Amino acid sequence: xxxxxxxxxxxxxxxxxxxxxxxxxxxxxxxxxxxxxxxxxxxxxxxxxxxxxxxxxxxxxxxxxxxxxxxxxxxxxxxxxxxxxxxxxxxxxxxxxxxxxxxxxxxxxxxxxxxxxxxxxxxxxxxxxxxxxxxxxxxxxxxxxxxxxxxxxxxxxxxxxxxxxxxxxxxxxxxxxxxxxxxxxxxxxxxxxxxxxxxxxxxxxxxxxxxxxxxxxxxxxxxxxxxxxxxxxxxxxxxxxxxxxxxxxxxxxxx
Amino acid sequence: xxxxxxxxxxxxxxxxxxxxxxxxxxxxxxxxxxxxxxxxxxxxxxxxxxxxxxxxxxxxxxxxxxxxxxxxxxxxxxxxxxxxxxxxxxxxxxxxxxxxxxxxxxxxxxxxxxxxxxxxxxxxxxxxxxxxxxxxxxxxxxxxxxxxxxxxxxxxxxxxxxxxxxxxxxxxxxxxxxxxxxxxxxxxxxxxxxxxxxxxxxxxxxxxxxxxxxxxxxxxxxxxxxxxxxxxxxxxxxxxxxxxxxxxxxxxxxx
Lengths: 255, 255
What we know:
Order of helices and strands of chain A: EHEHHEHEHEHEEHEHEHEHH
Number of domains of chain A: 2
CATH architecture of the largest domain in chain A: Alpha-Beta Barrel
Oligomer: homodimer
Protein name (chains A, B): Orotidine-5'-phosphate decarboxylase
Strand content of chain A: 15-25%
GO biological process, one term (chains A, B): 'de novo' pyrimidine nucleobase biosynthetic process
GO molecular function (chains A, B): orotidine-5'-phosphate decarboxylase activity
Largest interface: A-B, 59 and 59 residues
Keywords (chains A, B): Decarboxylase, Lyase, Pyrimidine biosynthesis
Largest sheet of chain A: 8 strands, parallel, barrel
Helix content of chain A: 40-55%
Enzyme class (chains A, B): lyase
Strand order of the largest sheet of chain A: 1-2-3-4-5-8-9-10
Low-confidence stretches of chain A: none
């Protein structure tokens, strides 16, 4: 249930990689090889690739191809926060599900049903809708109340009525662990992607306490805490150790 | 005040372009040359480039470079609907404002203040926030009422309190023209980007009636209605004619 976020920043990766042809991919490959035994998913954060233009997009393609070829059992998430009118969402779905062959993508809900359904049309793929996010700005709109519901509750409830909603998963921030109870009332069985453990300050114990359904149902993401565990030549080995530590910490809360 | 949307779909462009090395760019170049006298802005829809992977990203880069080099007075909009936690939004801002050198980008509001402010830090750039969108799914959440405000009103009002909010523009769909009065009460001077005239059914007359502030303040977008005016060899000429027609129709509402 550990997901590792691949947020590759050239300012943060070990300096000895920068002389290589494709340092972003080489960093990812080493991290993936060292951590794959301890996680079940990888989540490249698309912004970090787009920031490097064509070079970044090529590194993203090589990274997802590497995971799909070498570790086909890993679940892959394009953390892209897309969403637009229907014909445009259909193009985003094509980009991430067909061209790049990710298993899933994160999608923003503001534009409603017809902005999300084109993603849901891909029946062997998953669409991960933003429910409650881990950042401070979540307070601005997600907690606005109408009738007796918060906006994020409306998003969860309404989206469950959409076509192919069984393929929906949801983002729920670890920093909002006390609301996981509310989320679980609305979505007893849905898979939740939980960012915000670690660098953003979320508590693993609380997330597991309120979010687990039986022994499963949570995909807990860690990015910077794992991939930047060391900035030296031993970066991959240290990332593997951190991933193992986090996986062990999680396993205490299962059973 | 006409903005032309560059939503390039290889299934819709003239067949004779498909034999060229970079048909997406060649199509855009011809459209831009033929229409630039009648518009003040171009808006590539990023999904349509991402759908073609590395090849699409290269065509996007060539397109924005071409506009910036040949027609530097044109205002450029990356229609990308991005938005994420702070450090990720900063990477998206870097991608579109630095690497690609767009003048502006469209951004989704669901994640609140700290997801938008990294874009606003670029003081010579504009951030175009989704207010009220033109699609049917806008009804799902944007019209939820809390206190006496719709969600979209809260988004407009709250965002005006953010740092560097003078660089904000807003998306307001043409299909919601009757709400433009409400929008103009909250944002008397802001520039509005209005999609949805044409293919989506919005009325130019109503948009101008309710949205104009003095002689300005609106950027009205047309995409498919202009760029796919013809699917033959005369596609650029016909696009120029359509752009001129729309510009003339708009000028009736300006004194």
